[in-house]
Amino acid sequence: MLDALPALEIVASFSVGIDRVDLAGCRERGIRVTNTPDVLTDDVADLAVGLAIATLRKIPQADRYVRAGRWKSKGGFTLTTRFSGKRVGILGLGRIGLAVAKRAEAFDCPISYHSRSEKPFPKYKFYANAVDLAANCDVLVVACSLNPESHHIVNRKVIDALGPEGVLINIARGAHVDEPELVSALLEKRLGGAGLDVFEDEPFAPERLFDLDNVVLVPHVGSDTEETCRAMADLVLQNLEAHALNQPLLTPFSGKRVGIIGLGRIGLAVAKRVEAFDCPVNYYQRTKQAYPNYTYYPSVVELAANSDVLVVACPLNEHTRHIVNREVMEALGPKGVLINIGRGPHVDEPEMDEPNVPEALFAMDNVVLVPHVGSATHETRTAMADLVLANLEAHVAGKPLLTQVWKLMGKCLVLKLHCHLKNVSADGRAPSGLEV
C-alpha cells in the first residue's frame, strides 16, 4: 500500500498495536507513525481481569443456567474458583501489563512477569522466560506487543507449564498463542481454562472451543467502549494535527464513578478493587464513615444520581428492604448499571423470589444473571464449613465463639452439621447446609 501512496507523510493508527503497519517501509520513506497508547490501556486491562473472573467464576455459564430455567429445575449452580489471591503472571510489562498488575494487586494477587529485560519494579518477580513464568502462576495474561520474538510465545511448553489448574488470558494478539496447541490442551484438559479476546485468524475462532464450559470467548473487544473509541478517534485527529503543527498530544481518560450502598466488609473490598481501575468511589450508609477518599451521600437517591455503577452490598433488614426503588433507578438513569450482590429484596422487584427470576430479563442483552453464587467457590465454602466447626468446638469447650452474632439465654441452640464442604457431592454443588 505504501507504494500506492507516494506522497504519504503520516500513518495514524486507530489502535495501540502497530503490527499491521510496515514499519520498515515507513522508516525508509520517512513516514511518521503514531498509535493510540494510554487511551485504551484501562479498557484492555479491565477486560483482562474481567475475562479472568468470568473464566474462573464461570459467569457466562451461570447466566445461561439461569436463563434456561435450570436453577429452578436442577438447583444450585456448580462451585467455581475465586480470582482473589491467585498468582498472576504477565507476559509483557508495558502500559497494559502494568495496568493489569495494578488491578490484580487489588485482588491480593501476587504478580510476576516476563519481558525482554527486567523492569524496575522490585515488588514484581521477574522470570527470564515464559515457561518459568507459566510454571509459577495460576493465571497467565498475555499483554506483550506482537513481533517476531513474541509470535507463538505461548506454545506447548508454556501451556503444559501452566497446567490443568491454570488459566490463560489473551488480550494482546491472536498470533501470540499457538492456537492448535491451545485447542488441544483445552480439549485434553491439560489446561484449566482460557479467556480469549483475540484469535489468529479473526473473525474466525476455533469452533471446537464453542462447547467447552471452561472457555470464555469475546470478539476482540478489548478497547471497544464508547469512551475509548471516541478518545481514540480524537487522538488520531490530534496526531494528524500534531503532525501539521508539530505539537505534543494529550488525551486524558478516567474511570467510571462507582457508588456503593453499604460500606461494610464487602463494600470496602469492592471499593478497594474498583480504585485499582481508577474509579472514583462514592457510598451511602446510615452514618458517615471515616474514609476521606470516598465521597459520602446522605441518601441512596443522591448516591445513584452521582454514580455510573451502583453496587448493593449492605445487609438486609427492615431499613434496606427495597432500598433500590423506582426513584433510585431513575436517578441512576438510562446509562447507569446496577450490581446487586447483597440480597434480592434489596431491589424493588416483586418477582425476585429465588430461585424464581423474572423471565422478562432472560432475553435482554444488557443484563447478567447468576444463581446467587457470590460465595460459591471451593475455597470460601471450605472456609465457611471450617468456621462453623470451629464455632461448635468453641461452644462445646466453653470458649468464646469466633464469630458470635447473638447470645442465647436459658436454652441452648444445637446445630447439626449436615454436610462438610470437603465431602461435597459428586456433581460439584454446594452442600445443603445446616439442619436446625
From TrEMBL:
Output the superkingdom of the source species.
Eukaryota
Q: Which molecular function terms from Gene Ontology are attached?
A: glyoxylate reductase (NADPH) activity; hydroxypyruvate reductase [NAD(P)H] activity; NAD binding
Question: Which residue numbers delimit the D-isomer specific 2-hydroxyacid dehydrogenase NAD-binding domain?
Answer: 49-222, 246-351
Give the record's keywords alphabetically. NAD, NADP, Oxidoreductase
List GO terms (cellular component aspect): cytosol
> What SUPFAM superfamilies has UniProt attached to this entry?
Formate/glycerate dehydrogenase catalytic domain-like, NAD(P)-binding Rossmann-fold domains
Gene3D superfamilies from the entry? NAD(P)-binding Rossmann-like Domain (3.40.50.720)
- The protein depicted here goes by the name D-isomer specific 2-hydroxyacid dehydrogenase NAD-binding domain-containing protein
